[in-house]
């Protein structure tokens, strides 16, 4: 079994490769992503758990500021427990 310190260290060490892979894949799919993001959205919902929920709050504000399209952020548990 891996100790928590070792698991954390390995996670930190893998970040550069993970970000590089993510960037490469995003660039590869830039045309379909651009088309998808330019659809006529009525509202956009951002979600996350824990620290990613805090990121969703920032993403919602940024999205709304940049696009003028209404955006909200909710904890993922709310989507699970209260889908409507």
List the SSEs and their pairings:
Elements: H1 4-13, H2 15-28, H3 30-37, E1 44-48, H4 51-67, E2 71-75, H5 76-81
Parallel strand pairs: 1-2
Structure description:
65% of the residues lie in helices and 12% in strands. The chain is built from five helices and two strands, in the order H-H-H-E-H-E-H. The protein has two domains: 1-38, no CATH class; 40-84. It has a two-stranded parallel ribbon. The chain is mostly helical and 84 residues long. The termini are far apart. The longest helix is centred in the C-terminal third of the chain and has 17 residues, at 51-67.
State the total count of DSSP E strands.
2
Query: Biggest sheet, in brief?
Result: 2 strands, parallel
| Oligomer classification | single chain
Rg, nearest Å: 17 Å
How many alpha or pi helices?
A: 5
Give the topology string: H per helix, E per strand: HHHEHEH
| Structural shape | flat
Number of domains: 2
The portion of residues assigned to helices is: 55-70%
| Beta-strand percentage range | 5-15%
The termini sit apart by 41 Å
The strand order across the widest sheet is 1-2
Mean pLDDT comes to: 91
Structural class: mainly alpha
Q: Which blocks of ≥5 consecutive residues have pLDDT under 50?
A: none
Briefly summarize what is shown:
With 84 residues, the protein is mainly alpha-helical. The chain has five helices and two strands; from the N terminus they run H-H-H-E-H-E-H.
List keywords for this structure.
84 residues, mainly alpha, 2 domains, two-stranded parallel ribbon, 5 helices, 12% strand, flat
């Amino acid at each position: 079994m891996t100790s928590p310190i070792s698991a954390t260290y390995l996670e930190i060490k893998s970040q550069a490769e993970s970000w590089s892979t993510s960037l490469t894949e995003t660039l590869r799919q830039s045309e379909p992503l651009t088309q998808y993001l330019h659809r006529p959205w009525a509202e956009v919902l951002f979600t996350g758990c824990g620290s990613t929920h805090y990121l969703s709050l920032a993403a919602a504000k940024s999205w709304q500021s940049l696009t003028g399209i209404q955006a909200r952020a909710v904890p993922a548990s709310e989507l699970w427990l209260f889908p409507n």
